[in-house]
Amino acid sequence: MIKLENVTKTYNKTVRAVDDISFEVKGGEIVGFIGPNGSGKTTTMKMITGIIKADVGKITVNGFNVRKEPLKAKESIGYIADSPDMFLRLKGTEFLDLIGDIYHVPTDKRQQRITSLAERFELSEALSSPMMSYSHGMRQKIMVVAALMHDPSVWILDEPMVGLDPKSAFELKQMMREHAKAGNTVFFSTHVLEVAEKLCDKVIIIKKGHLLFDGKLEELEAQNQTGSLEEIFLELTEK
Ligand SMILES: Nc1ncnc2c1ncn2[C@@H]1O[C@H](COP(=O)(O)OP(=O)(O)O)[C@@H](O)[C@H]1O
Ligand SMILES: [Mg+2]
Q1: Are 170 and 12 in contact (CB under 8 A)?
Q2: Whose CA is nearest to atom 7 of ligand 1?
Q3: Could you tell me the CATH superfamily of domain 2-76+153-237?
Q4: What average pLDDT is seen over the chain?
Q5: Which pTM does this prediction carry?
């Protein structure tokens, strides 16, 4: 469960990236976070993970306040950042060991998780090479393996499909469905509407830091009988 109450973030005292937003993502739901570039999606997700602090407002993850109990909140989070270009000097195996250490994943469970996730993403052979040699898609995939290794209940995925080949994108979408179906929380951002349309129980639409819509896609379509979801989206998010 993710809950934001009146959350605001201003960069450099001038850019109000997120302006007084509130929403909730419940367990068992896949919620798409949609908005044009620069609308505040990444900023919001980073605040949920605790990477950056909200100026105002309250954020809880599985009931833990991310400011007051950051470690407890972080234990239940699996986060995929918008750029996978971290730790590139490490080999895949070294990077995954580092993450396993940070999250106290026991050795046997670590091996089992890495083996099954790497197989699912056809990454097993690449693990012994430095990540510098990986393609963007492979980097993205190893970040997915790392983020899910400790089996977190709350998934926060910032543009997770970008750069994935079709098979891996299919696997990841399938995993998102399975995870939500098991009662867990999946919150992901995308600017690709088709992905949201096929995958989401609910969407939250943001523009220039303001929440424009929070609800089911059918509700959005029923409210706006003007055309396809794409047209509604364009209309909503136009300047
Ligand atoms: N570190 C930063 N310093 C200053 N401004 C930033 C920073 N990160 C993002 N912004 C600004 O905040 C706004 C929201 O950005 P972001 O959250 O990255 O949006 P999105 O992920 O929806 O594309 C944009 O105007 C962006 O330029
Ligand atoms: Mg972003």
Answers
A1: no
A2: 11
A3: P-loop containing nucleotide triphosphate hydrolases (3.40.50.300)
A4: 92
A5: 0.90
